[in-house]
Inverse folding.
């Protein structure tokens, strides 16, 4: 037997200094995942170019490039050696970040390897075909036209859900949710949404009453030239701390945030009649971008643990900037004169108070993407319930339009006149994105809770925003969220940052303060 | 033994209809090379983005992406199975295009596989280090500073040349040349350049005398706003037949043509004091783009045989547009009023005759990239002789500055005052591009011969250009050059298109007509 002695310390020092010796499997996985993720970054750039720069005639070639790069990246992390490497690495000496990285590698491998290649291919084809038909069915309000295609997409999604559920040890719906929100569980969402559902209908009624008592806001009249809108967008991005040495703003049909931490590309589109829609797009995507800029760098870049935590946390960062910070009275006090100057206008409609009231108008409607902050969660809860029932088999697809209408009647008190304004409005299901919807509202609630915690932790957050200085807010977010990457689960990340798990009461308090507090 | 009979025809029909059966190795190679070339297209897009759109902070991430994609593409065509597949495919039933494709696959494989991986890596590092030092040595006119780095680059280039020479069965210099100009041979270049060398010194003197007798051209005075320059560039690109459904014009530090046939991206840069430099860049790159647009599509896209023939033919296409077509009196008759209108100017300096004389000014100088059409070949011949001697060992690197000066004295009658205006001016050798220089002048000569043949074949080529209609020229080029891809060698392609191999006399006749013909 070995005896204790100085030479053991010596050996331990060598042991510590030679990670390749004590972590051969783990190190090999790090190298493999780095390559796969660097290809993922390449894909992100190809997608950005497709949406912003590519001439139409380049579409087929780009599709082939992207499919090939995706296949190569997929093959890297589903190579036959991977499961054994994952198992061997489990037994190696790993620190907390390495351990978390290994956990995320396994998750990525499960999602990539659980589904047989022919199912993946069938799914891609069915989704593409369904999306094409949906583009015609939606304007025609013709659900029957797209029904057989959607049935095929749903059937394949259920097979995928089943395959992943077995590997992950969760329900089929949760397996789909896990693709977008790692460790997301419908049992927790059910509880949070039930709480919100109790709160919402009564609150919407009171908020509408409150709104009716306020003076109606005046709408600034256009046109607002696109280049002025872009200039003011760039000015606000700078104030928010967007790093133009590592990013860009461009124009695309739908705003998005792409790229990777060294090179973050956000987009917006310009409506010359309505500067607010472009600007809110810029602020929203800048929130996403700040998250990407703040992710762990060095060794954890392009590693699974170095990535953003999931769609809930990502959406929380965009909504924290757009909805929490930039619809505040403090921000609008700083922004209003800059907007008036940028467009060369003046008058009562450019007063901060007027712009604030414009930003918090509420109006129950049929369309999710046009919804205000108060009624938005209802749109999401309805979709979440429906997609869960469709995946679990509790709802027959042909009954979707009726169930949809029933949900709107129940939660918002309105009934869509047709399926164009009903279950045909969103691309998600038709394109195969099942399990995505709840992340929008979980993100909004997380944003409220994080912004509340940031203001409590640093008294200079709001005064900073009032003078266009987002430094204090950004520093808190970077320290408490961005720099953690995927080290923790979403719930632990939120609990460490705010002192408690997701609490619907914080979001409700935010809504109450903003929409009912007549004193402000 | 099989007897002749109808069933044999039946079998032959099946045989013809089942290429996978009679060409299993060839078909497998086609699939592999397609993937590798699609990755090459992706690389081209990544490079374009790096040069036009990427924020500076994205450089390291992009370098890693490009190195990884390059490695994957390289590994695909150097897989252990490739040599055997190439040999087996040689014995399979192939038509002329397939046979040519196989020949080009073998060439690509030889270039990719001949050099051991550690030499490739050492070369990339040495070239990168040398280029960095060169960026300081050039402005300082300090050849000694960069000499040890250049010596290392040259030494590794010679090793590469040796390795490829053995596989290709050619001389080391020709092996390097073959990277840029497939089947290019220095024996042929020597003959062509010797002919040109006899012609040039006397011709330059006569052309200068001829120029002295003409009225001096007047230079249109700037500033020329960049957006007007871009507008006129786009207008001229349209006239030339640039397909904006499959391409773009952007801005970069150095003009280039990137992308692939479905999505060709050309760039220029704008000097507000000198619209001609930007416009000539646009016309030159449009010539490259027209070649790419016209390459074979369908099955031959992303196959070796579907690619442009080589750098000589590619440069010939850009120079044919820029130098042959767009410096003609015919083109300038159409272009001059459009330029004057675009910049809102008028006066004698905007007359076609004046712009023509501006375009054909000659002035012997030290700098290749500033050289006129007449003296340019001398710059190339000097470099070709020197790099050949350096690779073959007939010249010691430390004697390069002296040999350079001697070349200029002999061919152009001038002696550079320092190495900044001498052997430090071009990036090529410092970045590892040995064997590239001769393609510039071979391209110029090829352009003259092709344009001459096009005008003879279709009498409407010049009248078309005179009214801004490049359709006849483009149709001839597409039929005789572009659509052939790499089916033929450069010399066979030129001979089929023009009736003879490269003939220095055609280029000389072009120079004589343009620079000495006082009657025009």
């Amino acid at each position: 037997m070995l005896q204790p002695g100085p030479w053991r310390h010596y050996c331990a020092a060598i042991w510590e200094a030679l990670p390749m010796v004590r972590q051969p499997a783990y190190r090999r996985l790090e190298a493999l995942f780095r390559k796969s993720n660097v290809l993922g970054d390449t894909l992100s750039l190809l997608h950005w170019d497709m949406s912003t720069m590519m001439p139409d005639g380049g579409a087929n070639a780009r599709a082939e490039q992207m499919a090939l790069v995706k296949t190569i990246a997929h093959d890297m992390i589903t190579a036959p050696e991977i499961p054994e490497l994952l198992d061997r690495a489990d037994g190696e000496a790993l620190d907390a970040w390495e351990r978390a990285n290994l956990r995320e590698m396994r998750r990525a491998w499960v999602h990539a390897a659980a589904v047989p290649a022919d199912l993946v291919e069938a799914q891609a084809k069915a989704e593409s075909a369904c999306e094409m038909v949906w583009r015609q069915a939606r304007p025609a309000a013709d659900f029957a036209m797209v029904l057989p295609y959607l049935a095929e997409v749903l059937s394949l999604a259920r097979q995928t859900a089943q395959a992943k559920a077995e590997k992950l040890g969760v329900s089929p719906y949760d397996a789909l949710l896990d693709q977008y929100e790692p460790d997301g569980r419908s049992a927790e969402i059910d509880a949070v949404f039930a709480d919100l559902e109790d709160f919402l209908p009564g609150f919407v009624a009171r908020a509408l009453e409150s709104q009716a008592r306020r003076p109606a806001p005046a709408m600034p009249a256009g046109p607002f030239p696109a280049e002025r809108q872009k200039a003011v967008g760039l000015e606000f991005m700078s104030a928010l701390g967007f790093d133009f040495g590592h990013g860009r703003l461009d124009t695309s049909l739908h705003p998005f945030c792409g790229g990777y931490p060294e090179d973050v590309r956000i987009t917006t589109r310009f409506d010359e009649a309505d500067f607010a829609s472009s600007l809110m797009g810029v602020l929203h995507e800048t929130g996403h971008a700040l998250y990407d800029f703040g992710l762990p760098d060095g060794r954890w870049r392009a590693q699974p643990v170095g990535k953003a935590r999931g769609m809930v946390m990502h959406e929380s960062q965009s909504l924290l900037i757009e909805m929490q910070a930039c619809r505040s009275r403090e921000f609008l006090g700083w922004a209003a004169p800059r907007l008036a100057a940028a467009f060369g206008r003046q008058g009562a409609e450019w007063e901060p108070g007027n712009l604030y009231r414009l930003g918090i108008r509420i109006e129950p409607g049929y369309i999710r993407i046009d919804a205000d902050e108060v009624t938005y969660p209802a749109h999401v809860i309805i979709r979440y319930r429906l997609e869960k029932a469709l995946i679990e088999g509790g709802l027959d697809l042909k009954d979707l339009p009726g169930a949809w209408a029933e949900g709107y009647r129940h939660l918002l008190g309105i009934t869509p006149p047709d399926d164009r304004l009903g279950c045909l409005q969103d691309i998600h299901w038709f394109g195969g994105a099942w399990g995505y919807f709840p992340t929008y509202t979980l993100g909004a609630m997380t944003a409220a809770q994080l912004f509340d915690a940031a203001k409590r932790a640093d008294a200079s957050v709001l005064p900073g925003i009032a003078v266009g200085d987002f430094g204090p807010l950004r520093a808190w977010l970077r320290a408490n969220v961005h720099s953690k990457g995927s080290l923790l689960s979403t719930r632990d990340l939120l609990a460490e940052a705010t002192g408690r798990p997701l609490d619907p009461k914080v979001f409700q308090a935010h809504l109450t303060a903003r929409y009912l507090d007549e004193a402000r």
